[in-house]
Design goal:
The protein has 112 residues and is mainly beta. 4% of the residues lie in helices and 44% in strands. The structure holds FE2/S2 (inorganic) cluster.
Length: 112
């Protein structure tokens, strides 16, 4: 795995997300309190585009049916298909991958 430059830091103001592509995957990069986080951008429910969802704190809401993910981990916090699973310990079936992010010289890089 290698770090891939996907954006400039100033393209992602605090409290926002952007859509990027790296390693053949569509990713969401979010700025939560000045920290940058990357995760898969495609909802595990029915493929909604999470980059079009609302970010509140570290939680992004899918614009299609309202599933929610923690952008810092990729984990489901509200799974519309399997609500009970989302409350159990460990990874649920709906969790998405998250990716390490670094900023170097103003470039945002994702490890993928
Ligand atoms: S596609 Fe995301 S909640 Fe249904």
């Amino acid at each position: 795995m290698a770090f891939v430059a996907v954006a400039k830091k100033d393209e992602i103001p605090e409290g926002t997300t952007i859509a990027v592509e790296a390693g053949g995957r569509k990713l969401l990069v979010a700025n939560v309190g000045g920290g940058l986080h990357a995760m898969d951008a495609t909802c595990s429910h029915m493929g909604g585009d999470l980059t079009k969802g609302k970010l509140e704190g570290s939680v992004v809401t899918c614009p299609r049916h309202g599933a929610q993910y923690d952008v810092t981990t990729g984990r489901v916090v509200k799974n519309v298909g399997f609500a009970v699973k989302a409350l159990t310990a460990g990874r649920s079936a709906g969790d998405l991958n998250s990716y390490e992010v670094v900023v170097e010289g103003g470039d945002v890089k994702v490890r993928i």
